Amino acid sequence: MATTSDIKKGLCIVYNNDTFKITEFQHVKPGKGPAFVRTKMKSLTTGRTLDNTFSAGHKIEEVRVETRKYQYLYKEGDATYHFMNNDDYSQIALQKDILDSPDLMKEGETVTIVVRAEDELPLSVEMPASVILEVTQTEPGVKGNTATNATKPATVETGASVNVPLFINEGDKIKIETDKGTYQERVTN
């Protein structure tokens, strides 16, 4: 059994007879009253998110997990994604609801799949912190309109839409933060 002091991003726990992954947390120590931990959790079976507050010292049941590197192969239909294990080349097919940012995955991308240790059940797919994708469609920026942090929508090679600065053009490669799906920087070859 773990306690609230063990809570960190990515920790998998059992809560209300379901398996959850901690996506955000904040330790709060108010001036008056006991400390507590405010969390945002994602159900690994249903995909729904839940905000929850644990009082300090609360016992939580941790799920033992293993991480494995897989390569994203292809998407079948609208909801099935195929991956290949980088160690033994076995393939698995996973549903869209356990993927963190499926619209930013490009074929050949290496991801980390979190697997429950006791029954080898895949719980979630974690993307790298950032990905580099090519802009396939965007409106041209208007020269001289850059006094503020103005942005415009752009479509990248995976089909995702990202807001980018006005100086980004079609064919440019950009780095995107996968957690928030936001533009970070332009990448030069």
UniProtKB/TrEMBL annotation:
GO cellular component: cytosol
Assigned keywords, A-Z: Cytoplasm, Elongation factor, Protein biosynthesis
GO biological process terms held by the UniProt record: peptide biosynthetic process
Record has Transcription as a keyword: no
Domain Elongation factor P C-terminal residue range list: 131-186
Pathway: Protein biosynthesis; polypeptide chain elongation
UniProt domain Translation elongation factor P/YeiP central: residue ranges: 67-123
Subcellular location: Cytoplasm
Entry-linked InterPro entries: Elong-fact-P_C (IPR015365), NA-bd_OB-fold (IPR012340), Rib_uL2_dom2 (IPR014722), Transl_elong_fac_P/YeiP (IPR020599), Transl_elong_KOW-like (IPR013185), Transl_elong_P/YeiP_cen (IPR001059), Transl_elong_P/YeiP_CS (IPR013852), Transl_elongation_fac_P (IPR011768)
Entry-linked Gene3D superfamilies: 2.30.30.30, Nucleic acid-binding proteins
GO MF: translation elongation factor activity
Domain of life the protein comes from: Bacteria
PROSITE patterns: EFP (PS01275)
Presence of keyword Protein biosynthesis: yes
Pfam families per UniProt: EFP, EFP_N, Elong-fact-P_C
Protein family per UniProt: Belongs to the elongation factor P family.
UniProt-listed HAMAP family: EF_P
Function: Involved in peptide bond synthesis. Stimulates efficient translation and peptide-bond synthesis on native or reconstituted 70S ribosomes in vitro. Probably functions indirectly by altering the affinity of the ribosome for aminoacyl-tRNA, thus increasing their reactivity as acceptors for peptidyl transferase.
Descriptive protein name: Elongation factor P
